[in-house]
Fold this protein.
Amino acid sequence: MRFYLTTPIYYVNSTPTIGHAYTTIAADIVVRHHRQRGDDTFFLTGVDEHADKVARVAAEQGLEPRAYADRIVGVWQELPRRVDATNDFFIRTSDDGHKAFVQDFLQRIRDNGRDDIYQDVYAGFYCVGCEAFKTEEELVDGKCPDHGTVPEWIEEKNWFFRLSAYQDRLLAIYDEQPDFVLPQFRYNEARSFIAGGLRDFSISRATQTWGVPIPWDPDQVAYVWADALVNYLSALRYAPGKDLERFWPAVHFLAKDILRFHCVYWPALLLAAGFEPPRQLFVHGYLTVDQRKISKSLGNAIDPLDLIDLYGVDAVRFWCARQVSFGQDGNVALDSFGERYDAELANDLGNLVSRTTAMIARYRGGRLTRSPGPGAFDAASLRETIVEQFDRYDITGALDSIWQAVRALNQHVEASAPWNLAKDEARSAELDAVLYDLADGIVAVAVALAPYLPETAPRILEALGQPVDVAIDRVAPGVAVEAEGIEPATPLFPRVDAAAPAA
Ligand SMILES: [Zn+2]
């Protein structure tokens, strides 16, 4: 099966926060899982450089927008690398290949014979932070509720997209595909927005120069969303790799603040340009500190790279998937980071691997024999469960399922007390069965955890003398092979003494 997943492209007007790392990590976990299933995958992330706010930040620093973007793009390109994300391509909207495709895309809509693009005067309140017009009902005390700033009054002649003509076709998509948007409450939100009636929107700006020129009116540039959304398709045209267009349609991951653009505008633009709508959209919540959205502008940003330096990348990936149910909002307390690290990674998982390898070394001279017992948990049913959970992008639920298996393995150690069996020659076969069941269960768990813990999973498999192969069919009973030379494993998650960085 083909599986194409995207993150939103991030604005380069600031530097990455834990919120950006969160989306990127969640997407990477899902893509890695699909690779485990043998799917043909393509994973896209990147940056939006054409936003008006980028031009403004550049001007404040006395730079041309492109020079500013070139200077800051490095920290954004580093983000996927630092969180161990396996994106196939990193798109910049200033790429020539992207710009050419946007022009082609808009021209296709203009030429579709339905008069979907027309000229009109637009007047309204515009929030630069949102890159969107705001109705008066959306403002709180005259300010954008998300940014706390007074929007600007803009009045200019623009090119408009006839979104209103797409209401029925969009509703038909939603009705035919009840999981078009997930979670369900986001589907309901998007569908009721469409059902409430759609207003045409401006796809160009007359007063900006930083952007993609409208092909039939080069004095105007494409509105940032009419440019940015198209990245999901343009990348398939010019990213290195043969025949990438076979990957369309995509699954899009996004945070809830950009739901309307992705779940309403984007499918309509695609239909108008003659492309298939997205395959699916998953809308996740915010990680918050003190119930406020994490962003630099609110001054409570957490630098995700600080946490990685302190705890390692796998611990940050684990925490992002574990701490807040993916799709919901969740409040971040940094204390919870250290607590989970100690209790779950170091103790539940790390100790399990240390104890098991130490017992095989001590009682069996490092030799694992193939001697299955009853098993500590049902690995085949774990595989079925996590596959089903991943199909709903429930990375938190799947991790919980895996953790139940980790706990079952720990209970198996306590219940079978191998240290007592080792004292009794007559119970030697029993000891072999316990050690095999533990090693075999750990192999299944390590394979299941590989999308979450890409550095740790191979280390676990190596510590048990097993092939480093994380294909999902190895989440099954009896996969552990005989091995020799097993030594007590070094701690997978060593104690971290440093205090957590302040929020
Ligand atoms: Zn705003």
Notes: The two ends are 42 Å apart (CA to CA).
